[in-house]
């Protein structure tokens, strides 16, 4: 499959990836018609793990073989799978899918912020990065509208969505720091993340069942919507998570991580568009302005400084 994808222009895969990841917020909303948020999170990671394991077997890709690497991957997986996938679907029980997608927009800014806090060798504070971080935080405040009791989204729900976006920033920063000298080839990396993330979401699901007193296979909503909800979650896990990671790997391999990361800017746009067109959701003026500010901060933080005359830009 990966060899076939390598013949597709990276621009096409980039657009498909943005659409897939942006539509994940719609799929989570559809899943909530009959399923509990913890059921959706566990199914998403489990289905994604199965999807990637099938591809690993088909391509004969080797997974990591030592406990240390698996331990580091488990730590990264908590922030890249278990926590954000749970946060976004829980947030959508209180806010619209469009607003949850806007919470994800903080990810690039959070990545830079935590890279600076963890003192990664390749990152240092510059006026551009400081401006981007401050703009991102200002954009989040504009979206939340804490000064308005009616105009903005539910503050707790939006805060949970922002936590999901921040979690990605922590996870990718830890991944860069902890696994810098460890080789995890190709799709073995996302596969390992899903394998280690699934037990975390499963334990969270069982703990929730125990505390709230319901079965892990209970229906939470209209039984008539169960099959459509399950179909949405299967698509969320297999395509929105499993296939999406494969496409991301191919885009990064084609044009590098800097260009590949720009897909993050389009994800909230797709999420908002689908929320408005399919679910009839709407955004206020301040939310639109805040979204533009946050996305602009992400674009700013992703730009590389121009090389001085006679000096080659770092690779």
Provide a compact summary of the structure.
With 315 residues, the protein is mainly α.
Give the strand tally: 0
Query: Radius of gyration, Cα only, in angstroms?
Result: 19 Å
For the biggest sheet, the summary is: none
Estimate the global geometry from the Cα principal axes: globular
Low-confidence stretches at least 5 residues in length (pLDDT < 50)?
A: 307-315
Oligomer: single chain
Helix tally? 13
Note the gap between the termini: 29 Å
Beta strand %: under 5%
Please, what is the average pLDDT?
Answer: 86
Number of domains: 1
Give the H and E element order: HHHHHHHHHHHHH
Structural class: mainly alpha
Q: How helical, in percent, are the residues?
A: over 70%
Explain what the structure shows:
This protein is an all-alpha fold and 315 residues long. It has one domain (2-302). It contains 13 helices and no strands. It has helices at 2-5, 10-31, 37-59, 67-91, 97-104, 107-117, 127-144, 155-178, 188-212, 226-255, 257-260, 267-279, 285-302. Helix 3 (37-59) crosses helix 4. Residues 307-315 have low confidence and may be disordered.
Q: Could you give the topology of this structure?
A:
Blueprint: H1 2-5, H2 10-31, H3 37-59, H4 67-91, H5 97-104, H6 107-117, H7 127-144, H8 155-178, H9 188-212, H10 226-255, H11 257-260, H12 267-279, H13 285-302
């Amino acid at each position: 499959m990966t060899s076939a994808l390598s013949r597709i222009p990276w621009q096409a895969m980039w657009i498909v990836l943005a659409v897939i990841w942006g539509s994940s917020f719609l799929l989570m909303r559809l899943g909530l018609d009959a399923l509990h948020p913890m059921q959706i999170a566990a199914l998403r990671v489990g289905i994604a793990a199965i999807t990637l394991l099938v591809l690993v077997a088909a391509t004969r890709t080797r997974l990591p073989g030592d406990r240390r690497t698996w331990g580091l991957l488990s730590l990264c997986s908590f922030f890249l799978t278990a926590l954000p996938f749970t946060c976004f679907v829980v947030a959508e029980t209180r806010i619209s899918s469009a607003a949850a997608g806007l919470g994800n927009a903080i990810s690039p800014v959070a990545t830079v912020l935590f890279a600076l806090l963890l003192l990664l060798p390749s990152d240092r504070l510059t006026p551009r990065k400081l401006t981007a971080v401050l703009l991102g935080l200002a954009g989040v405040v504009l979206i939340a509208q804490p000064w308005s009791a009616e105009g903005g989204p539910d503050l707790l729900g939006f805060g949970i969505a922002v936590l999901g976006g921040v979690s990605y920033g922590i996870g990718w920063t830890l991944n860069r720091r902890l696994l810098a000298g460890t080789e995890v080839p190709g799709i073995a990396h996302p596969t390992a993340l899903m394998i280690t993330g699934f037990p975390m979401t499963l334990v969270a699901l069982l703990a929730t069942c125990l505390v709230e007193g319901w079965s892990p296979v209970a229906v939470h909503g209209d039984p008539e919507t169960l099959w459509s909800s399950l179909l949405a979650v299967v698509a969320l896990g297999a395509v929105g998570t499993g296939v999406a990671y494969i496409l991301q790997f191919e885009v990064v391999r084609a044009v590098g991580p800097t260009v590949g990361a720009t897909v993050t800017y389009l994800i909230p746009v797709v999420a908002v568009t689908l929320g408005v067109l399919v679910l009839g959701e709407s955004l206020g003026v301040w939310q639109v302005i805040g979204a533009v500010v946050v996305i602009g901060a992400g674009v700013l933080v992703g730009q590389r400084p121009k090389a001085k005359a006679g000096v080659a830009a770092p690779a």
